[in-house]
Write a sequence for this structure.
């Protein structure tokens, strides 16, 4: 049985230790595993190499297509478990792409990890459109849910699924992280919060950007809107530390 991962370089899976850069766990030492494939297509996505393979014409602002053979690696599940256990971190962050598209394989990987390392904390970063399977749900300690707003370019009927948003809002493990590019995006965030009863304590707004200058510029006005609405604001620590690079 296998699982599809993104790569840092051809043939090398994107499994790495770093500080969590975003959301409620920002600054925590973590072990990351980035899976391949996504069901959405954000026009500003900074990991388009996980889904925009040659022949995929879904829009992206860079217009770049990636060769699947060098940007996606299919590995046996037991090899992935062994690679992850080689790191000492007690917090695993599964990211993508959309990790829940591979829930069956991922559940087996996480079950093996937790059996080998009791007390392991597992986070999944998800776009919020896919329900966690019955097998994977009990293995997850924290969901970092990032619903995509209109400026992502995704149709609302694909990106903002009412029953999923309702379920995430009711799950105390789920923290919402909205990517914001302009003040007008915050009106959409406020409307979604009101519609689905998302607690402010579990709602983060984060500036869209892949360089420090853009992030700092947007944080100036975003901080005021976060304060006004009772939201939490998150930076992108890894961008400031390492730039927009893989494996960081």
């Amino acid at each position: 049985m296998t699982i599809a991962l993104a790569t840092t370089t051809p043939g090398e899976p994107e499994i790495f230790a770093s500080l969590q850069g975003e959301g409620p766990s920002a600054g925590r030492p973590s072990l990351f595993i980035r899976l391949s494939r996504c069901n959405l297509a954000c026009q500003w996505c900074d990991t388009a190499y996980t889904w925009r393979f040659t022949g995929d014409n879904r829009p992206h602002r860079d217009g770049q297509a990636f060769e699947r053979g060098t940007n996606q690696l299919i590995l046996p599940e037991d090899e992935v478990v062994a690679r992850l256990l080689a790191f000492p971190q007690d917090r695993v962050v599964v990211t993508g792409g959309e990790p829940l598209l591979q829930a069956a394989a991922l559940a087996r990987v996480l079950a093996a990890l937790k059996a080998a390392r009791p007390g392991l904390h597992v986070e999944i970063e998800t776009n919020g459109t896919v329900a966690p399977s019955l097998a994977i749900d009990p293995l997850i300690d924290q969901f970092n849910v990032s619903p995509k707003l209109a400026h992502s370019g995704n149709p609302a009927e694909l990106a903002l699924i009412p029953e999923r948003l309702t379920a995430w809002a009711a799950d105390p493990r789920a923290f919402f992280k909205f990517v914001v590019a302009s003040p007008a995006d915050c009106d959409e965030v406020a409307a979604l919060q009101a519609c689905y009863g998302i607690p402010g304590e579990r709602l983060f707004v984060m500036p869209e950007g892949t360089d420090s200058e853009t992030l700092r510029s947007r944080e100036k006005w975003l901080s005021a809107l976060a304060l006004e609405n009772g939201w939490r604001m998150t930076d992108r620590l890894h961008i400031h530390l390492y730039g927009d690079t893989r494996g960081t």
